[in-house]
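Re: the 302-residue chain
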Amino acid sequence: MRILLAGATGAIGRPLTRALARDGHEVLALARSEGAAETVRALGGTPVRADALDREGLLRALDGLSADAVVHQLTALSSPKLRLTADDPSNVLRERGTAHLLEAAGVLGAGRFVTQSLVLGYGYRDHGTRPVTEEDPFGVRNGTVADHVITGLVEAEGRLFAADHVAGTALRYGVFYGPGTWFDPTPGSRPFPVPAGGGGTMSWIHVEDAAEATVAALERGGAGEAYNVVDDRPSTWGELAAARGSRLRVPGPLLRLAVPYLGSLMLDTRLRVSHAKATRELGWTPRYADHREGMRAGRAAA
């Protein structure tokens, strides 16, 4: 397939571009700068100089081009704000960016569209010990600052599933770890604070496994379907930080006071998610069963 990829230079976009090129797909990747364009070329893609948030510029850049599919992997997680608001950059990309990329799919004649979503859309709360599946309610808000994230995820999935010119698939990823993420095992990477005592339980996914799941969804994903993309073993934030070698611990009340969103994410949420549907329908299983394997592999490759 010829694929338009938005977010090729991000943490998941880099391994995804390499994986698509490896499997013989042609990648047209949006690049806002010449530096990003050079990165795209090095990864095996062809840059298209455009910004997904600039509707007119995007459609102008794509005029005369064609593609079979569009993949939306745009986020703004590299520099998170201390205070989460409705106009958070990642939410803007999920809402306005999705709308523009759906228009782009029409210009390109693309019949497939895969978008990034997150398992956090199931709600920032204690879900108990039962694994959450795609049959569980998505978009559940609880009146905290984290509702802004849920609103963005619901908006992105809703726009996609309402579009009648593409077969849309949403991938609900676990929290990313691996190169280029908050939890990068590469020596010298910036430490990320986690709650003293370990915090809540979360479902994780290595960015390379996330990339492989995205390739599988492009090739075999069902129209109007959402798939959970997580590894086999949920763990606490503290366990993941320990496997990374990070010792930056913050008392829970201080963490909640300093960054309220991280309080909702790291203290209030216990979320164990199942990838059984993705395994059954996409033929995908994670290479790294849990964060311990993924972190070991990252350190060995560094």
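Residues 89-108 form the longest helix (20 residues).
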